[in-house]
Amino acid sequence: MASIDVVDQNNKKVGSVELSDHVFGADVRPEIMHSVVRMQLMNKRSGDAHTKGRSEVRGGGAKPWKQKGTGRARAGTSSSPVWVGGGTVFGPLSKTFNLSLNKKTKKAALRSALSMKLKDNMIVVLDKFELSQGKTKEFVEVMKNFDVERALIVLDDENRNVDLSSRNVRGFKVMRSEGINVYDLLKHDRLFITKESVSKIEEVLAK
């Protein structure tokens, strides 16, 4: 097992923790991480662009005027695409872009991303992350202790002050340990994770 220092919010060492080789020492497999990131991005697409064809627009049941004798061009329906308010020809239709992968693959990709972060020395284990107020200034001061501009912060439990103080700081994202995913791990340079979150993640990914 690999050992990593545990630090406080002032970046002072307060202990150490052993990391599971199965979770943080796995082989880095870019092809699996790519598949999972692609799935996450595709599943975010709404695919709700939709235009109505001539059979879907309102009206168009009766012939606008008789065939002959009016001096106007022949017209069979007001839903014709050449009419204002008529149907659209070959317009976009709503669709789903959802992809799926099995749990085994998603867990393998997550282990791969965590292992890559550890090999690159991009993981910081905190004994805890607590703020007295939900103020942006307080959050920024803590991050200055680590000289970091982009980071994913994983907490073991909900912390309203940390959520409020970080939401307006560009480049940072706070989430619970159960929400950790490959896309956010790769998007952010550093990973800040509480000691309790390490145990929870290892418990889930060990299976």
Structure description:
The protein is α/β, with parallel strands linked by helices. The protein is 33% helix and 15% strand. It has two domains: 2-29 and 101-205, Ribosomal protein L4/L1 (Ribosomal Protein L4, Chain: A, 3-Layer(aba) Sandwich); 46-96, no CATH class. The chain has helices at residues 21-24, 30-44, 103-119, 136-144, 160-166, 182-187, 195-205; strands at 2-7, 13-19, 123-126, 151-155, 172-176, 190-194. It has a six-stranded mixed beta sheet with strand order 2-1-3-6-4-5, with helices on both faces. A hairpin with a 5-residue loop joins strand 1 (2-7) and strand 2 (13-19). The chain starts with a strand and ends with a helix. The mean pLDDT is 92.
CATH topology of the largest domain: Ribosomal Protein L4, Chain: A
Structural category:
alpha/beta
Task: Count every helix, treating DSSP H or I runs of 4 or more residues as helices.
Answer: 7
Assigned CATH architecture of the largest domain:
3-Layer(aba) Sandwich
| Spatial strand arrangement across the major sheet | 2-1-3-6-4-5
What oligomeric assembly is this protein in?
single chain
Low-confidence sequence ranges: none
Give the overall shape: elongated
Task: Set down the secondary structure blueprint.
Blueprint: E1 2-7, E2 13-19, H1 21-24, H2 30-44, H3 103-119, E3 123-126, H4 136-144, E4 151-155, H5 160-166, E5 172-176, H6 182-187, E6 190-194, H7 195-205
Parallel strand pairs: 1-3, 3-6, 4-5, 4-6
Antiparallel strand pairs: 1-2
Helix pairs in contact: 2-3, 4-5
